[in-house]
Every structure is written in C-alpha cells, then in structure tokens.
Write a structure and sequence with these properties.
Strand order of the largest sheet: 1-3-2-4-5-6
Low-confidence stretches: 175-185, 205-260
Protein name: cytidine deaminase
CATH topology of the largest domain: Cytidine Deaminase, domain 2
Structural class: alpha+beta
GO molecular function: cytidine deaminase activity; identical protein binding; zinc ion binding
CATH architecture of the largest domain: 3-Layer(aba) Sandwich
EC number: 3.5.4.5
Shape: globular
CATH superfamily of the largest domain: Cytidine Deaminase, domain 2
Number of domains: 2
Number of helices: 9
Mean pLDDT: 78
Radius of gyration: 23 Å
Largest sheet: 6 strands, mixed
Keywords: Hydrolase, Metal-binding, Zinc
Organism: Artemisia annua
Number of strands: 11
Amino acid sequence: MVQPPSSFIISSTEAENLANSKNLTLPQLLPSLLKSAQLLARPLISNFSVGAVGLSSDGRVFFGANVEFENLPLHHTIHAEQFLITNIAAHGGGPKVMNIAVTAAPCGHCRQFLQELRGVDDIKIVITDQEQVYEPVYEAFSAILPYAFGPCDLLDHTHPLILEKCSNEISLKDEIFEAIKGNEPDLGDGLRETIDKNEEFVGNEGFTAARGSHAPLKSSVVSDTEILSNGFSELAKDEGFAAARGSHAPVEMGVVIDASDLSNGYSELIDENEEILKREAFAAARGSHAPYSGCPSGVALMDCEGKVYKGSYMESAACNPRGYG
C-alpha cells in the first residue's frame, strides 16, 4: 500500500540508496514516488490530487502537491508544481532543477512559473500517472512551453531568478524596529532564546487558553488590559480566552488576569515576538522574486508554540503577479 512520504524532502544519500535498491537511476526513481506525492495533496474543492517530484542538482528529491482552500475560489489553489519549486527554494535546493515528474499536465500558469528558473531549457519533465515507469520518457521543458516568453525577454541576464539568492533593496523603519538597507537581519541565538521563552509561556497552566486548547470552559474574567498580542493570537477583553483558544466549546473555568500578571517577563516577550516577526517578514521580502512589479513582500507567522514560519512573494513574467509562501 502506498504511503505518503515522511518528509517533503529526500536527502541525496537516501535518494541514491532508494534508487539503487530498485535498480533505478535517480531520474527513473521520480515517477515511482508520484503516488506518494499525491497523498500529500489537499484537494478540498476539486477532489483532484496532483503530485510532483523534482530532482535538484545537489541530488536531493523534493515533493509538491496541490493544496486547495475551502470557501475560497480555485484560483487561490497552490498548484503541485508551484509547491515543488517553492519547497526547493525554501530549502536551498538549487542552483538548478534537473528533472521533474508530475501526475498531470501543468497548467499554463505553472508552465510560466517554471520558466522563471535559470537554465529551464535543460530541465527534463515527464507527465505520468503510472507508478511503475521503468523507462520514463523525459522531454525538454520547451516541449510543453514552446516559443516561451520569460525573464530573458524582460530582465538583464545577471538578474537573480527563482532559486537564486536575491537581496531586494528595501528598508523598514518604525518606533519598534529599524532595518538598514543592505543588512540581512541576523536573529542568531536570540530567536532560539525567544522560542524557548514562548514554549515556557504556552506551558504555563494559567495561559492554556492561548494554546488553542479544546478543553471546555464555562466562565472567564479578564481585566481591561489588552493581553497577549504576542503572535499566538489576541485575547478578547471581556469575552475571556475563548477567541484565542480557537475553541467553539463553552467556557467552563477561567483565569483572572490583571496587569501584574505580565510583570514576570511576558510583556517583554510580547515585544520580542513582534520584533522577530517583523525581522523575519522583512528578510522574506528581501528574498522575494518580484522583478516585474517591483513590489517584493514577505510574511511571517508564529504558531501557538512560538515557532516562526515565513514566506516570500514570487511572480512570473507573463501573467498577473501572485504570491506563494
């Protein structure tokens, strides 16, 4: 029975060993992984799962799958090929993509998105929904996008493309945080220390509501002080912790909070979290691929355990710009 992969990346050593165990080359291995890639898909609207697998020039194998979002139009879908390239970009899988296998023909937007890769003419692609393809017939990428219009038509040949390091010259200044143009934000050990503090925070019994607990509550009292706008969520003033808990159950037992409860270092933690998110979003924006619109952007999110995730905007030459994390 086919199982989803345990990770979205297979290391070069593991990929080589897996190919050898099946007496396959690495390009031949890719189609055999497509069924597993499809199991990563979340086609909540179309119910049509697409899987993509790519081999990078450093020997690693990357997965991609389509992700759809309920109550949103289909054009918000993350397509499998875009997921794949974003996965490679986020994990330093460059400088090149060598081979791609995908279960269904890429749409026009995905073909144009792939055109943003350096050396795209050298990429070989196979489209198959068969798990066992011992002699996959790879074609040049130009076979699925002839007479392509892309970055070479609009940009200087030295301009960084997707998978290449980009450093957009942008700056962010306000009363909390200042980033000087040209300096890459370096969080270093400070981020780890703050994450540790966040973990301590969410482990505090008095703040279990902020963790998104689903345990029921019945009554809750808070002061007028607005508390915990620290990236977990904002706790409502008079409605208790129900909103921040993400719980749909009634409240059973609450915690009384006043300003003195924040004198134990958590008020400083709020500021640290805000600064970290700004720095991470700024770093993501600096690495954004936006040479056509000139509008680089980035986003950073913090989950209820204090872990930070970031994403960058990417666009292509021949379609309306869209963002992908």
